[in-house]
Design brief:
Bound molecules: adenosine-5'-triphosphate, magnesium ion
Number of strands: 27
Structural class: alpha/beta
Strand order of the largest sheet: 12-25-26-27-23-24-13
Number of helices: 15
Helix content: 25-40%
């Protein structure tokens, strides 16, 4: 497996070079591309690469990009997928305007072109079974052999094809094949199937058809009908290009589009096969297509990944012609970069440990906390400090190793936006677990600095007694191996891909924030509200404060481990 860091200088790649040359040479006056998903699943981050490329070049060259549903296989396609695809392309920030098309819009025209090929002696109806056809197709090294039905007269072919359309034959009884060359070195040219019989209702054309065109027969002709100039697809279609061109040359199509292939996106620890993603959903290995562990756009959205981060990631990996696998860390990095700029800061304690400040008396006080360190316009918020607070359990060690500078008996640390505190004693339960810390604070260090200039080596996040309970879900990679086996993916599933923490405490400002925008929980990573869970909760009438927050689900687009030691101040994740 090759892992690439980055390729192609952004904004310059072989596709853009071709387009620029075509425009310069006057071969085209405008650029028209298309994104052609088959509505048999949700879009994933690999599709985002194709979307950004197709819509991106159209935008850059002042052209347009069509959204075309490649809906030629009604047994696998569903309205739910159509809706999800439209939503996800829009969410990424692209707009097809009025250029929404379906291969099924062209069924009548495609049918007429099939008759045209029959009339020209370039297509025939074949009665061989699927198995017989496969057996006669030959191999990569051996030529195929001609079907006994190959020399049927034109009239008989036309009659049979019309009766196929009329529904006279059962599924699989006959197919229409192009008559090209059974000895071709390219298997795609060995009399490929153009139409198959399928008595199935179609989401758009209903019961109008019982024969459906193959991908190969529909794709290039749809491109030609729509005036696509550059038909960009992934490398597995390279061997189909001679067939794509054969149809364009042998049919009275209104334009001559050309196909160009680029490498598909592969990511470590990630499977981008629709078949596997479908099985993950159907098999209950995840909670749905929008499970935050899924590489689908719906899953990434629910995890809090901003669309800008996806587009930036795609821009950085570039477009090349050789297959490779991108380190998922590169994606995570792009996400962190965007969120670091945009996410407001908050504090929450995921595994709380109670702290009593023994020398603190009174009702507590209000501190001011900055919402974004680099953006004063994000403002400030108030947090409550008092005698009782909570810190992260992992921020205390009874007998710390050398480089652990956080809380331990006798150690002084800074509480973010508050005071220096010193740990005096750890209280344990009968099982010997630490359940509470007794600390003292230095009242002269309000705001985080000591008048005598003494330093502490760690700054910890914390929440006050007014913190609200919350459930937080931590998502880890779905697979344990960088290159999960798509054939037997279940063996590589990570049993710890979801960690649910039910006893978290979050500062009240976090619960009050009525938005799905991700926030940075200081020293923890980026989190966002789980919109799905909230939607279902909103339906419930009359909630008390307690109920309103107890189910606040946060999911994390990007997480970091608590640093094992800190220098002067908490480092943002
Ligand atoms: P299927 O196995 O169902 O064909 P697919 O992932 O190719 O799955 P399509 O709906 O045909 O799904 O894909 C739409 C477009 O997205 C195609 O042009 C395809 O080449 C492109 N695409 C799909 N997967 C990737 C990927 N991993 N990287 C880049 N482009 C992709
Ligand atoms: Mg495909």
């Amino acid at each position: 497996m090759t892992v690439i860091e980055a390729s192609a200088e952004a904004g310059r790649d072989f596709i853009r070079d071709i387009i620029r040359a075509d425009l310069d040479a006057g071969r085209h006056t405008e650029v028209v591309t298309r994104f052609p998903p088959e509505p048999n699943g949700y879009l994933h981050i690999g599709h985002a690469k194709a979307i950004c490329l197709n819509f991106g070049v159209a935008e850059e060259f002042g052209g347009r990009c069509h959204l075309r549903f490649d809906d030629t296989n009604p047994t696998r396609e569903e309205q739910e997928y159509i809706d999800a695809i439209e939503r996800d392309v829009r969410w990424l920030g692209f707009d097809w305007g009025e250029h929404l098309y379906h291969a099924s819009d062209y069924f009548e025209r495609l049918y007429a072109w099939a008759e045209h090929l029959i009339g020209a002696g370039k297509a025939y109806v074949d009665d061989l079974s699927q198995d017989e056809m496969r057996a006669m197709r030959g191999t990569l090294t051996e030529p195929g052999s001609n079907s006994p039905f190959r020399e049927r007269p034109v009239e008989e072919n036309l009659d049979l094809f019309r009766r196929m359309r009329a529904g006279e034959f059962p599924n699989g009884a006959r197919v229409l094949r192009a008559k090209i060359d059974m000895a071709s070195g390219n298997i795609n040219l060995r009399d490929p199937v153009l139409y198959r019989i399928l008595h199935a209702s179609h989401p758009r054309t209903g019961a109008a058809w019982c024969i459906y065109p193959s991908y190969d027969f529909a794709h290039g002709q749809s491109d030609a009908i729509e005036g696509i100039t550059h038909s960009l697809c992934t490398l597995e279609f390279e061997d189909h290009r001679p067939l794509y061109d054969w149809f364009i040359e042998n049919l009275p199509v209104p334009a001559r589009p050309r196909q160009y292939e680029f490498a598909r996106l592969n990511l470590t620890y990630t499977v981008l096969s629709k078949r596997v993603l479908t099985e993950l959903v159907r098999g209950g290995h995840v909670t749905g297509w929008d499970d935050p562990r899924m590489p689908t756009l719906a899953g990434l959205r629910r995890r809090g990944v901003p669309p800008a981060a996806i587009c930036e990631f795609v821009r950085r990996i570039g477009v090349a012609k050789a297959n490779s696998t991108v380190d998922v860390a590169m994606f995570d990095h792009a996400v962190r970069e965007v969120l670091n700029r945009t996410a407001q800061r908050r504090m929450a304690v995921l595994r709380p440990l109670k702290v009593t400040i023994e020398n603190y008396s009174g009702d507590g006080e209000t501190m001011e906390a900055i919402n974004h360190p680099d953006d004063p316009s994000a403002g400030t918020r108030r947090i409550r400090f008092g005698r009782e607070i909570y810190v992260e359990r992992d921020d205390f060690m009874e007998s710390p190793p050398k480089k652990f500078f956080r809380l331990s008996p006798g150690r002084e640390v800074r509480l973010r936006y508050a005071y220096f505190i010193t740990c005096r004693e750890a209280i344990k339960n009968a099982a010997g677990e630490v359940v509470e810390l007794r600390c003292t604070y230095d009242p002269t260090t309000r705001g985080g600095n000591a008048p005598d200039g003494r330093k502490v080596q760690a700054t910890l996040h914390w929440v006050g007694a007014d913190a609200l309970p919350a459930q937080v879900r931590l998502y880890n990679p779905l697979f344990t191996r960088p290159d999960p086996n798509a054939g037997d993916f279940a063996a590589d599933l990570n049993p710890n891909s979801l960690e649910v923490l039910s006893d978290c405490r979050i500062e009240p400002a976090l619960a009050a924030m009525n938005s799905d925008e991700p926030v940075q929980l200081e020293r923890q990573g980026y989190f966002c509200r789980d919109t799905r869970v909230r939607r279902s909760r909103e339906a419930r009438p009359s909630r008390t404060m307690e109920q309103a927050t107890e189910g606040l689900f946060l999911s994390s687009p990007q997480r970091c481990e608590l640093p094992s030691f800190e220098m002067a101040a908490a480092r943002p994740p």
